[in-house]
Design a protein that fits this description.
By secondary structure, the chain is mainly α. It starts with a helix and ends with a helix. It has two domains: 53 residues, no CATH class; 215 residues, MetI-like (MetI-like fold), CATH 1.10.3720. 69% of the residues lie in helices and 0% in strands. It is built from 13 helices and no strands.
Amino acid sequence: MKNRTAKSILVHGILILGAFSALMPLMWMISTSFKPAEDIFSLPPQWIPDPPTLANYERLFTSIPFARQFLNTFIVSTSIVIGQLLFSSMAAYAFARLRFPGRNVLFFAFLSTLMVPNVATLVPSFIVVRELGWINNYLGLIGPYLLGSAIATFLIRQFMLTIPAELEDAARMDGAGHIKIFFLVILPLTRPALAVVGLFAFVFFWNDFLWPLIIINSESMKTLTVSIASLSASVYGTDWGVLMAGATMTILPLIAVFLLTQKYFLEGIQITGLK
């Protein structure tokens, strides 16, 4: 009994230490966003601003059109997530529940695209977007990622494989076709996997930097990551207080999305990929 208690204390101690280490940069970022410039690099470091100030946030909102760029980022991220969930789940349904010649070969060929680095397709994607006239607008930001991804399809497919086939058989006996089975039977049961995929996709595209940097050249169409990164390129040096204020404001939606999807996310993490 004593050994079990000691082991439990040790494990929880290590987990707490790891969690604290992971949270330290986040805590420093939030703390710095409320500090005056002269206290940011003071030694020893001040974890609690004394006195706290909102001047960094005031300069943030006057330096960039934050509200417009926040809206841009939200529209782009949300649109891509909706598209990826819809089209990736449709592809996953075909790979998991339909029987057709070459299904497994096609699926593994589809997965092989994961081995191609994103930067390898950057130039071809830019040329396509430019020829379509999508430079510097929402279509250029959303279009290349709207129709799903291999990793999203894989995760949803693995979850769909765990759904009993008897449910489909019962739906067919009631006269349902593939469309009704997909939308009314399979998709509602796939909510945990959809939550995982949706959260990962939202975080990735909310933080995406390279693609918006390449195809957007107007201030009103920039996303937050590009705009906030530009704050560190001033000829007068980096205003760390404003930069940390921007970073703090940027992560708030991510925290909110995680809290809203936490139940399904944790459930999906536990059972996605297990048959």
